[in-house]
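Researcher: I'd like a structural prediction for the single chain below. Treat it as a standalone chain; there are no partners to consider.
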Amino acid sequence: MDPFLGDPFAVGRDLHVVPTYWPVPNAGILPMNAFLLHAAEPVLVDTGAGILGDDFVDAVASVLPLERLRWIWLTHEDRDHTGSLLRLLELAPQARLISNFFAVGRMLPETPIPLDRLHVVNAGDRVHVGDRELTAIRPPLFDSPATTGFLDAATGTLVASDCFGGPLPSLEEATAHSTMGLDPEVVAQGQLAWASVDMPWVTSVDEQVFARDLDAVRRMQPTTVLSSHLPPVIGRTEELLQTMRRAPRAEPVPGPTQAELEALLATFEPGAA
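Model: Treating it as a single chain, here is the predicted structure.
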């Protein structure tokens, strides 16, 4: 059940998605996206899963020569976001890493990040990237306390990291270039399942407090929402927020059992496991 890399695709004039897809048993296909923002000082958001190796680096380079890359915005330290980080820092000598300091601290010492190339951000901080400012935000849902997305007010684009993500039933749905043609309830069910599994604390929160966090996103008025784990959402922000209002009441999705693991292993070719 290894991930596979899709072809980068454009969203508007300033952005490319570098997509990966991961089959999840009994759930569907989970997108795992990185993003390349074509600001005057180009910004790569996250660096793929480590298993992708040079294929991910080549996909980024097919969209932008790596010597032109100026920033790598790491939304958090999970392995599906950091896989090619050190390799890209090596190949893109002008690039600096933007991250929450706590995220970097959780990666050290296993990942020897050059701290002299680190630009620390916290929610509310602004980073100037040549022709625009990116405002750091903490999304309403997160699976790492260090999660830091951003709002690009110049284009109305909100990078939400794992928030709003969810597996989709089919490869065709997961590889869509936006959610526009997808069944809204199918998307919503995937999002609610993902929230209860990846951010299970949401089922214990005060709903009014959580609603205020969602209102903060509403006030940003994003026109495009980029989740690491969903096709781009264009012009449907309110739909996302209404779905997430349901998350505190979502039924927790049970995790895979030992019996299901053994059934899965039985489908593998000898030696493939």
